[in-house]
């Protein structure tokens, strides 16, 4: 047995391992991720390394391969923790160790530190004044300007840029003066800081009893040595962020650090400022708009203790703090917490694993107005501790929500995108100068087909997900591959209004302008936000009341608060309901609840209209009542019935192939491989074409495995990985690649 070992643990060097022999006495004691002691280099100095691969195949002459000296078990450094976390991710989600390490280690290349230079006088004032007079006499204008400035501010250091810029003095002149001992040029290194902190610390809010209860419970558990996961279920404005701040305060008092994850899209200036106002210079932010230098510096600041708190998206989880004490995941239901590249990890599970690996452990706090089924389920089973915050502290009353039945509208002869009730309310808001948001739910796949007269949706008889329209007049199930021809007549009501739904933001904008030519409309979608900064520009224009109506996709439901929005219209509430995956109802409920929550943030009462062809669907009814529990109970029953996560676990084996037939054959082969070693209680589905069946001429298909035991899925994954690897080694798998996705969140 041979072990590939890396010694230099940096992002760039992980793919340059050295090979060692595993001596008999260490067999069984060494695993991927193990720290080992090895002889290194010509002098065979002992070094510490980490095993990233185990193999039977020597890379060269086995006689020349050195032996591992020992394995060291203690977890001491941040590197040990990163290594173990990467090994866990590799095993838990399926990927190479190198890909896992790349994910876990901060990506930024070493960057030079920034320096500020300052200029000050090196002689006493009397000498300087004499020199100045001499310069005036000799008409040495540049020297005169600089000495004048220095004499006027004898206590200050003058920034170098000011001297070369405003005073317009050449750098040669500065150098000459410095060489003559007249002035002194000092350099000071500093960290790049992405946001200028406001130093004014604001008074802490006096927490409500409910808020205080959460903080007390978490503190008490911590004191007793328990490191738990907590779920705070609380509507927007119920005071979750204030609780986070109090919890972080406590952790910092204990000399530890805090990681706060926020979905990138919700990482607004307003949110950041809340933390900055409270923690000043001790907090920093990571996000995709930072330069490599800024990113590098934030990681350095975390490592060296220059900050205590980092705020950022998924990847901020891997901030190298010396002693993380709490990990907070806000809006924990967001699909952005799941990585879409290998390893396809979920930040929530990875945070919990990380907290176990930390020498002193960390508390994990999840927060959401609409928790993921996963988290709420685990809170129900007692795995997480649940807290509920039910009051909105910002004032403002919850909006009145009405459902408009689009089947009824058709019967009344209304063929427009707007129901009569929505038209009436838009009219009213325009006349009163209040604002309206029109949200089109485009989350689903445009391919689903329904009857516009009765709302009937064509579904797979085996999987209970919507069928998608494919070319050639076929309806296809993306889970099991079931197919049927497209029908022209609705099998339920015999109407001929059977079609796939196609309406975009552009059409809605046009329609608003047609109905109300005087209305000023802003539109926000993928097209209008392509340019950098355009997203913020549109939102602030709307906040400044430069428009009456904002039309948009899911982008408009997050972030900013608009106190003057008193009407929200949700135009195609069904759209996401028929996306062909098992999370369709959950996503619909979350979107509708969030969108509805946009109305009535200010003092004025708000209205929400949910337009739907399926007004009786539980996710729509529960969203209209803003009743999470009602939704959860229905949804968990469905997941239970069909063995979907979180009640069971599911692995999607994703195959990508240049050739469709070859890909399908290989997918079938993988299924057979698993069936030959079938474990009790597992169910195989597929292969079937993926919901996006082809991208860039690469065909995509999937095999699904459901099983309540996660370890069983890992067993199958390992089986396939080994098989795939052996084919790759023989050069037989050149046009096919395979990825694994455990408990998938994003459609494939
Ligand atoms: P969430 O994170 O759940 O949306 P926030 O923590 O942002 O809620 O709280 C909503 C608003 O209520 C904020 O303006 C916040 O400053 C205020 N707030 C929160 N807790 C309190 C409190 N205990 N007393 C007074 N105001 C509070
Ligand atoms: Zn019908
Ligand atoms: Zn099916």
Automatic annotation (TrEMBL):
Task: Report the EC number(s), separated by commas if there are several.
Answer: 5.6.2.4
Q: Give me the residues that bind Zn(2+) 1, please.
A: 451, 454, 490, 493
User: What does the entry comment about cofactor binding?
Assistant: Binds 2 zinc ions per subunit.
GO BP terms, alphabetized:
DNA recombination; DNA replication initiation; DNA replication, synthesis of primer; double-strand break repair
For this protein, the record's Pfam families field holds: Helicase_C (PF00271), PriA_3primeBD (PF17764), PriA_C (PF18074), ResIII (PF04851), Zn_ribbon_PriA (PF18319)
Instruction: Give every Helicase C-terminal domain span.
Output: 485-642
Q: Which residues form the signal peptide?
A: none
Q: Which UniProt keywords apply?
A: ATP-binding, DNA replication, DNA-binding, Helicase, Hydrolase, Isomerase, Metal-binding, Nucleotide-binding, Primosome, Zinc
Which reaction is the catalytic activity of this chain?
Couples ATP hydrolysis with the unwinding of duplex DNA by translocating in the 3'-5' direction; ATP + H2O = ADP + phosphate + H(+)
Would you tell me the protein name for this molecule? Replication restart protein PriA
The species this protein was found in? Butyrivibrio hungatei
Q: Name the encoding gene, please.
A: priA
């Amino acid at each position: 047995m041979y072990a590939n070992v890396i010694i230099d643990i940096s992002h760039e060097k992980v793919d340059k391992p050295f090979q060692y022999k595993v001596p008999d006495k260490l067999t069984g004691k060494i695993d991927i991720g193990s720290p080992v002691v090895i002889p290194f280099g010509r002098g065979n100095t002992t070094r510490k390394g980490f095993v990233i691969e185990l193999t039977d195949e020597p890379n060269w002459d086995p006689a020349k391969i050195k032996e591992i000296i020992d394995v060291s078990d203690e977890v001491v450094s941040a590197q040990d923790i990163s290594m173990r976390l990467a090994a866990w991710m590799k095993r838990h989600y399926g990927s190479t160790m190198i890909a896992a390490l790349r994910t876990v280690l901060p990506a930024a290349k070493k960057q030079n530190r920034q320096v500020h230079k300052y200029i000050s006088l090196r002689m006493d004032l009397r000498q300087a004044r004499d020199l100045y007079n001499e310069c005036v006499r000799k008409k040495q204008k540049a020297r005169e300007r600089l000495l004048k400035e220095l004499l006027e501010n004898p206590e200050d250091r003058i920034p170098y840029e000011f001297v070369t810029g405003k005073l317009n003095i050449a750098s040669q002149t500065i150098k000459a003066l410095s060489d003559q001992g007249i002035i002194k040029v000092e350099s000071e290194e500093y960290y790049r800081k992405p946001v200028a902190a406001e130093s004014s610390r604001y008074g802490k809010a006096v927490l409500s009893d409910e808020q205080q209860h959460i903080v007390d419970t978490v503190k008490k558990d911590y004191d007793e040595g328990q490191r738990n996961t907590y779920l705070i279920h609380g509507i927007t404005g119920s005071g979750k962020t204030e609780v986070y701040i109090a919890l972080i305060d406590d952790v910092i008092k204990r000399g530890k650090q805090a990681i706060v994850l926020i979905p990138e899209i919700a990482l607004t200036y307003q949110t950041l400022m809340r933390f900055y106002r409270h923690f000043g210079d001790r907090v920093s932010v990571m996000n995709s708009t930072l330069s490599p230098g800024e990113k590098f510096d934030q990681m350095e600041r975390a490592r060296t203790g220059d900050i205590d708190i980092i705020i950022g998206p998924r990847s901020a989880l891997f901030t190298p703090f010396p002693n993380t004490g709490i990990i907070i995941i806000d809006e924990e239901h967001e699909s952005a917490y799941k990585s879409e590249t290998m390893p396809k990890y979920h930040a929530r599970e990875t945070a919990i694993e990380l907290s176990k690996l930390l020498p002193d452990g960390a508390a994990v706090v999840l927060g959401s107005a609409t928790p993921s089924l996963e988290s709420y389920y685990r809170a129900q089973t007692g795995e997480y501790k649940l807290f509920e915050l039910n009051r909105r502290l910002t004032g403002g009353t919850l909006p009145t929500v009405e459902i408009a039945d689009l089947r009824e509208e058709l019967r009344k002869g209304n063929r427009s995108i707007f129901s009569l009730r929505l038209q009436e309310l838009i009219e009213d808001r325009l006349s009163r100068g209040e604002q309206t948001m029109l949200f089109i739910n485009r989350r689903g796949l445009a391919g689903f087909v329904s009857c516009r007269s009765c709302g009937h949706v064509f579904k797979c008889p085996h999987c209970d997900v919507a069928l998608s329209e494919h070319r050639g007049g076929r309806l296809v199930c993306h889970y099991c591959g079931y197919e049927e021809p497209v029908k022209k007549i609705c099998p339920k009501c015999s109407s001929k209004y059977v079609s796939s739904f196609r309406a975009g933001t552009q059409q809605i904008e046009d329609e608003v302008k047609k109905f109300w030519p005087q209305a000023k409309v802003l539109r926000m979608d993928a097209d209008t936000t392509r340019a950098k900064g355009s997203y913020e520009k549109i939102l602030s224009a709307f906040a400044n009341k430069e428009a009456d109506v904002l039309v948009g996709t899911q982008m408009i439901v997050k972030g900013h608060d608009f106190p003057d929005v008193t009407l929200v219209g949700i135009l195609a509430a069904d759209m996401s309901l028929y996306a062909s995956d098992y999370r369709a109802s959950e996503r619909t409920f979350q979107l509708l609840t969030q969108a509805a929550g946009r109305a009535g943030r200010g003092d004025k009462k708000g209205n929400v209209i949910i337009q739907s062809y399926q007004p009786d669907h539980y996710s729509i009814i529960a969203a209209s009542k803003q009743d999470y529990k009602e939704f959860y109970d229905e949804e968990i029953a469905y997941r239970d019935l069909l063995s979907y996560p979180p009640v069971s676990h599911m692995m999607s084996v994703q195959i990508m192939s240049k050739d469709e037939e070859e890909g399908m054959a290989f997918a079938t082969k993988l299924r057979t491989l698993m069936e030959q070693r079938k474990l009790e209680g597992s169910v195989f589905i597929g292969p079937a074409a993926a919901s996006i069946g082809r991208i860039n001429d690469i065909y995509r298909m999937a095999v699904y495995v459901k099983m309540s035991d996660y370890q069983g899925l890992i067993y199958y994954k390992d089986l396939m990985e080994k098989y795939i690897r052996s084919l790759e080694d023989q050069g037989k798998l050149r046009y096919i690649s395979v990825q694994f996705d455990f408990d998938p969140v994003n459609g494939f």
